[in-house]
Amino acid sequence: MPTGHLLLEEPIRMASILEPSKASFFPAMTKIVGTLGPKSRSVEAISSCLKAGMSVARFDFSWGDPEYHQETLENLRVAIKGTKKLCAVMLDTVGAEMQVVNKSEKAISLQADGKVVLTPDQGQDASSEILPINFDGLAKAMKKGDTIFIGQYLFTGSETTSVWLEVSEVKGHDVVCIIKNSATLAGSLFTLHASQIHIDLPTLTEKDKEVISTWGAKNKIDFLSLSYTRHAEDVRQAREFLSKLGDISQTQIFAKIENVEGLTHFDEILQEADGIILSRGNLGIDLPPEKVFLFQKSALYKCNMAGKPAVLTRVVDSMTDNLRPTRAEATDVANAVLDGSDAILLGAETLRGLYPVETISTVGRICSEAEKVFNQDLYFKKTVKFVGEPMTHLESIASSAVRAAIKVKASIIICFTSSGRAARLIAKYRPTMPVLSVVIPRLKTNQLRWSFSGAFEARQSLIVRGLFPMLADPRHPAESTSATNESILKVALDHGKALGIIKSHDRVVVCQKLGDASVVKIIELED
User: Fold this and answer.
1) Angle between helices 43-52 and 66-83 (to 10 degrees)
2) How many CA atoms, within 13 angstroms, populate the side-chain half-sphere of residue 112?
3) Which of 31, 95, 293, 357 could form a disulfide with 228 if both were Cys (CB 3.0 to 4.6 A apart)?
4) Residue 223's Cα: distance from chain center in Å?
5) pTM of the full predicted structure?
6) CB within 8 A of 23, min separation 6: which ones?
């Protein structure tokens, strides 16, 4: 199976490596998803995150109540207005997550070679000898010799706060384990992961449904991150649930692949989902370490060819406590870009990390450098070959627009779209220049009131590599006369000039619909 690994653009001048990175309006084509939490929820902190390059804010319901997240979201809205930076909202579900219940929140010390009992009896207090868990079916799923991992929520992999257990025996509903390494579990929330074991918990829990139908619907979330997606049916059920909630029936579902079960059914999940999140933290526990890179390359390749956004997690864990990433982490971020990732998702680094803003800007700079040496020519040929012939009308227009832009060295591609599909198809071919997606609102009605669509489509571009949205004036219809489109084009060009990405004598490729025809045209700007 092709892994989609792309060689670097050759040759790379050694002198260019020493050149300082140039600041630009777009820190990188690759997008950054930031998880908002205690260290990143004030208006000031969020504003700094937006300026540093965050384009999607993730709200993780594995911890914190809806009121807490609502307060954070209100701060996000104030920050968006203040910075004039668009930002989408992602709701991350709890899903089939097993947790250790530590009501006292006292630190628990575990010693290597000792024993600890996992029990579903949540009435017991957590201690060095017994750990209550939120799942009563663990004993049925486990057998002697199985491996269990327990770590602080969004663990960074530090062995002093994470523990590996080996099952020694199952006693009724309890699981007795041998402690493999000494560790201190501190805090109120620890997640428990049983390697390569099917856990009989629903993907969309009742608590998840309640949060989505209240907090999610009220705030018109752009993305739903479906934790622990294991089958395509999980995505279908989530979509059916969303379809009943009018305001968020357009919400895109990103399947979060966290274990071998999801990996086994990856192809069918990809068909159903709008995008994929590769949760490398849990996958790194479920898979042997030497297999993780292979899964990453294969999964990213499949997402790229399907034209669906792929998001990668757990890249700079050490920046939770340090100002600079390790050499391995910096290389990992660059390889994620070269492998075809659309976005990087930051978890603990921005949620509770000491340097959320610095983390975002550092990751953005690494992505930007990797994009400069991304072998677009090879990628384009692979994509065209994969799509095959005859191409669909839209696919042909999208690939032609990218080919033309590269041939004439255009500074930007401008695409008029109402659904966002045409712009996403252009981005699928990974042009070397930004794609300005001009979303033209459409008038719609639910038979009670009229409203304009477009805001959802614009914000949902914010997770796609190289795609930058702009919402057009609703008085301009999606398909109209040449004169009307010309006036929107002028607004788009002025927008590009104001951002500093278009200047005099630049060439611009425009993709637009005129009547029943789709047109790709090249414009050379005057003074």
Assistant:
1) 60
2) 6
3) 95
4) 9
5) 0.89
6) none
